[in-house]
Amino acid sequence: MALDGSVAAVRLAVRRTLADVPPGDPVVVACSGGADSLALLAATVFEARDGSWRVVGATVDHGLQDGSAERASALVEQMAAIGADETAAVRVQVHAAGQGPEAAAREARYAVLEEVASRMGSRVVLLGHTLDDQAETVLLGLARGSGGRALAGMRHGFGPFRRPLLELGRARTEAACRAQGIRFWNDPHNEDPRFTRSRVRHRVLPVLEEELGPGVALALARTAAILREDADALDDLAESALAELRRPEGLDAGGLATRPAAVRLRVLRLAALTAGCPGSELFRVHVLALADLAGGPAGGRQVQLPGHVTAYRSGDWLRFRPTAVGG
């Protein structure tokens, strides 16, 4: 029997992603029970069939839905049946203070997956995000006016995390599961219109496809790839500029003024992050305030930043200090 094309495509994506992983190393596959992650797990198990890697299937129970513990337990059994060498199910508590529930759940999930990888001795965690997820991310960034980095979408890799399926559509992963007889779960949160991403998936993208023609998701993903190249180049320039402009006295405001705005604002953001500002709370309005402070007259002015950080001018230097907190 000929190999199903969707199965072959997922396997090839995994093979390319793991090409640099030494034989025998453990590889963690994050698994939610949906078609994307189960197809990813099955492909990883297949590619490791000759003992290339030890496959660890890991699922995270956020405890946000009734019966989530039972589903996690059933998924552990399914991952083992697919062929994972080891399995792990971890329960986390999601704290949404200062951010939406989706962002809070994602933050908790990544943190615990990184812990699982460390415990298993793995340097790689595979995530099942697809081309459709990428298109949704780009649309959300566009709607929120989040700038080039957000429009660049999800990265193929960061830290231990890798996304082999970003070039494949969700229809491919569902077809791969069906071809292999793998039952997958449809998360009701993905259908719930209370969640912005759900509305983008089920309302916005279908309308765009209907009105503009097929291929919108692919075009958005392609746009993200182009913007990611630009954003990466600008980030590299900003890191180099920060290293040149930073002195024990602070950040050279005069030297900063000679840099293009795209680099200058990135340098200021990096400087604020280095000073202790949390990235999730540092917004463009803060960075623009820093730019005004750095480019304006010296003396007396300061900017209050998230994370109890204060930026101020001292002569030609932009400096940061902890914000005094009253008792």
Account of the protein in words:
The termini are far apart. The chain is an alpha/beta fold. The chain is elongated, with a radius of gyration of 23 Å. The model has no long low-confidence stretch (mean pLDDT 88). It has two domains: 5-130 and 154-187, Rossmann fold (3-Layer(aba) Sandwich); 248-322, no CATH class. The longest helix has 30 residues, at 216-245. α2 packs across α7, α5 packs across α8 (196-212) and α9 (216-245) packs across α11. The protein has helices at residues 5-17, 35-47, 68-82, 101-120, 131-144, 148-151, 170-179, 196-212, 216-245, 253-257, 261-274, 284-295; strands spanning 26-30, 54-61, 86-91, 125-126, 157-158, 161-162, 246-247, 250-252, 302-305, 309-314, 317-322. The strands form two sheets. The protein has a six-stranded mixed beta sheet with strand order 3-2-1-4-6-5, sandwiched between helices. A five-stranded antiparallel beta sheet has the order 7-8-11-10-9. α2 links the parallel β1 and β2 (54-61).
